Amino acid sequence: MIRVGIMGYGNLGRGIECALKQNQDMELVAVFTRRDPSTVTILTDGVKVYHADEASKMKDEIDVLILCGGSATDLPEQTKEYTKYFNVVDSFDTHARIPEHFANVDEVAKANGNIAIISAGWDPGMFSLNRLYASAVLPQGKDYTFWGKGVSQGHSDAIRRIEGVADAKQYTVPVDAALDAVRSGSNPDLTTREKHTRECFVVAKEGADLAKIEAEIKNMPNYFADYDTTVTFITAEELKRDHSGIPHGGFVIRSGNTGWNEENKHIIEYSLKLDSNPEFTASVIVAYARAAYRMKQEGATGCKTVFDIAPAYMSALSGEELRKSML
Amino acid sequence: MIRVGIMGYGNLGRGIECALKQNQDMELVAVFTRRDPSTVTILTDGVKVYHADEASKMKDEIDVLILCGGSATDLPEQTKEYTKYFNVVDSFDTHARIPEHFANVDEVAKANGNIAIISAGWDPGMFSLNRLYASAVLPQGKDYTFWGKGVSQGHSDAIRRIEGVADAKQYTVPVDAALDAVRSGSNPDLTTREKHTRECFVVAKEGADLAKIEAEIKNMPNYFADYDTTVTFITAEELKRDHSGIPHGGFVIRSGNTGWNEENKHIIEYSLKLDSNPEFTASVIVAYARAAYRMKQEGATGCKTVFDIAPAYMSALSGEELRKSML
């Protein structure tokens, strides 16, 4: 049994707990929180919730600690810190800061003889893998990543900060015409606006100026100004009824050519359609927790990403079973 | 520069030659053939064609030998034999015999300190990878593989052996309704007949009994009897004009559930749409030739499949570049 701890019990932590239940070779042994542990109720019978400060004392009882904090401020500190004591997996997803995070974590992991897998999830994660495989196989080609249809937490939060907004949910939606153009193999150059639209469902406070809210959303730099954005005002009840899920997904497509004169065209497409973004992310992380455990058993140490991990490490099946059933 | 040799110069061998041209860190150094070398003309200037018997003498001039023989009789012997002298990659695709092939090749590879990557291509190969990744991430779920639309060489050959047939081309076609059912997440149980149809384009010899040919195709056990099969008689000119390509492709879809009560549904889909089956297969093999070279440099030996190879080994980019640009 691979003994797993969860650091942080929000949507992602709960997703990890659910994923562990589906993996018979792994067991949850502890959940850690920065809140008062007595206020946190988890789903698994017989497993205790501890304060985060207690984690390092349990280093010998946990094979892999899964870090479920946010990428903005939590993980840059937490992953470095806990890699001193544990093999860890995180889902650090600030793409631009991955090289820095990798370097920081790698140093600690090597110094302490642990494995730290960073940026596991679906983007970064499964999407990254597909970008790599596709570009290695078709070096003459072009990559496209589309996201959605799905909820962007960051964009929803940005709307909620506007004066007069009580609540909001924002969906990122890939543009069908752009997807079709990519799939045709025409290697189009697509602007930000051509690739995705943004759909906003907003609950306004009583007496708020709706036209002003709408204008403020549509003109918000970085978040909305470069997109075709629609704003729909709904009631709090409608928001709850129709928009309480956290779906997401997207597409990684590579279009490339082969042949002595590049006369043959090929399209590689990978897509995800997810009812629950955090639960799917958690499922990827748990498979990589198995990989972390096994690589450590074989004597490997240091920081790893999905690029560095042979796929077989992620499966509960043996090499022999995999070759027989899946190759 | 990674120095590559090609053993066997048919469609696949030529595809390898074309793929090497697109990879700046690799160079073709020799082509080997069982034919009289003077009768074989290749595309690359300045590279010599040798008889297959000469290969072992060139062991110090070749980093990876790519084996382009057939799976029925060539590769079971060739891969074992050449692994004595070279790191090799093959595309052995008789799924049921992979465990046996692996065991045979592994022994020789270890005894001689070489890396042998077997069953590289797209199925087995990229499709296998996607079956593994998806099932590791979504253990509660179901896998589906569809092939096509594409030319099946084996089925085309089977038709050509029928009395009165001058030439033929067979396409395997996935059934849209089955694909849609799988994508809906309903986890349907699908029969062979429900998943694929078979389209046959046949050139009959003069005076042949067309009705008899059609019946013989449709009732052929294993090949056609379990499928809805259409037979269309065309002229030799039409066959040449409309059916001389070797397209293929297909879909690997996993539908699975997460959540404490498995209440959330997820669909992972990987698809290929290929103008040239042999050239795409060759492109996958060449990326794995790079992996073979690098793993050998790091001291690894033995037989490997796509499951055992960290994705980063396949890319010409460094780990640092990959993390920066693709993660």
Low-confidence stretches of chain A: none
Number of extended strands of chain A: 14
Q: Tell me the greatest interface.
A: A-B, 69 and 69 residues
Q: Kindly state the mean pLDDT of chain A as a whole number?
A: 97
The biggest beta sheet of chain A is recorded as: 7 strands, parallel
Oligomer: homodimer
Spatial sequence of strands, sheet with the most strands of chain A = 3-2-1-4-5-6-14
Global structural class of chain A: alpha/beta
Q: What percent of residues of chain A are in strands?
A: 25-35%
Order of helical and strand elements of chain A:
EHEEEHEHEHEEHEHHEHEHEEHEH
Instruction: Note the total helix count of chain A.
Output: 11
What is the overall shape of chain A? Answer: globular
Computed Rg of chain A: 22 Å
> In percent, how helical is the residue content of chain A?
25-40%
The CA-CA distance between the termini of chain A, in Å, is: 26 Å
